[in-house]
């Protein structure tokens, strides 16, 4: 029996889909059998980031409505044979699926996969309720901006109310130079408000833009710093104790701060 | 033997009521409660735990000890400390709606009664029927906690969160959201926080907002209260040294 993890955020555009695609690829490269579920129904995206759009025949709504079997709708990744995608429907909306149906669907996936990652839509409406319905754990993504952190806090409150007791945090698009100039919220500021465990910090990285356009997750490129950060997060999700990246080698600013947080 | 009988447990629909004997000392009560929790932890199901302390008034240290014991033995609970209301609660629970105790809600709050005349009696608790709700959690953006009586939050109140009480609001953590004390109009209510950095504070009918250029971080416990119709903030320590109503020169910073 595998475990299911929802990737969620509150505020839109902070990197949930990017995170889902990269963590999925990184986990699969470590040998886990991984299924990615695109729960952003009506705003299908994950297939594009993985370069699998042209292989879609059936989608998630077809499965819950009984038009096809789950196995028929799963698309195998072209680079990694143990990575699969269940795409969202593009021509339907969130009301096409209920939380109970999502719960059943994810339970079925957990029987044949080690990890099921669910890409949540932004917001706190039914799409969010659907995405979290079948999840055992939650990863909350935020960027270092006041509004994104506020919305992450809102989501964490909703997750706690639904008995997700330890949602974990990914801080995306951090720019070490701006942080050290004091122009960007630093990791301490964010953790002080959200008060949950940090599972990774992903830097702003041009590779992400390029890889999105090419349909090649950044973890596939060794030169990408964001890709390395995602590989580390994947390892931490599997229970490994990986030190945080030194995003600012000059004076160890960011790392120094992280050390203080983790007491190491 | 004696200690065994000085705490009594009554099951409620959504939790448990514990009655403290009036004659026992606090230490005896704590020890007896510890034993009861140890031996009968399974009987404390349900999210709510109400402790009726009779007519005694618990100090902050005692409240924290009690809270720590319960947290250690039972995990998180919605803990309510009430004074001599066991009979009412048991009756209410019999006829009740099965929800949380009426005095603690996440959500709407009954409309405020007309403001009472300025009381300014600082030596008395702000709420006549002295009752404190203790909540151990982070109150997050979009969440609202309302309480009929005073509330002690062990945790932070984040930006975008609201805490509203008819009595005092005490935050043993950072208060960065909105707090409203004396929500039915009492202007002698207070807001106290270890780090008082709210977006807005309301006390009774008065509203104070954070200056648009926020001052530096608050580094020590502070109290907000109403002086001459304005909400002022001053350090918590030392405020007893000076009569609160005297319009002294060392009055706190207005935040309104
Ligand atoms: N670390 C990063 N560095 C640079 N660009 C990034 C990074 N992370 C995400 N982006 C860019 O931000 C944009 C939004 O990312 P993404 O689609 O993953 O967000 P999302 O949270 O899934 O959005 P939505 O809420 O719309 O589903 C994309 O254009 C992506 O390329
Ligand atoms: Mg997305």
Write a structural description.
The complex is a heterodimer of chains A (264) and B (256). Chain A is an alpha/beta fold. Chain A has a single domain (3-261), classed as Rossmann fold, CATH 3.40.50.300. Chain A is 42% helix and 16% strand. Chain A has twelve helices and eight strands. In chain A, a hairpin with a 6-residue loop joins strand 3 and strand 4. In chain A, helix 1 crosses helix 11 (225-237) and helix 5 (99-112) packs parallel to helix 6 (126-133). The longest helix of chain A is centred in the middle third of the chain and has 16 residues, at 146-161. The relative contact order of chain A is 0.17. Chain B is of the alpha/beta class. Chain B folds into two domains: 7-95, Rossmann fold (3-Layer(aba) Sandwich), CATH 3.40.50; 133-243, Pectate Lyase C-like. Helix content of chain B is 16%, strand content 31%. Chain B has three helices and 17 strands. Chain B has helices at 26-40, 60-74, 86-95, and strands at residues 7-12, 15-20, 48-52, 78-82, 104-105, 132-135, 144-147, 150-153, 162-165, 169-175, 178-181, 191-196, 200-203, 206-209, 222-227, 230-235, 253-254. In chain B, strands 1-2-3-4-6-8-10-12-15-16-17 form an eleven-stranded mixed beta sheet, sandwiched between helices. In chain B, strands 5-7-9-11-13-14 form a six-stranded mixed beta sheet, with no helix packed on it. In chain B, helix 2 links the parallel strand 3 and strand 4 (78-82). The longest helix of chain B has 15 residues, at 26-40. Chain B is elongated. Chain B starts with 6 loop residues before the first strand and ends with a strand. The interface between A and B is medium-sized, with 12 and 12 residues. Magnesium ion binds next to helix 1 of chain A.
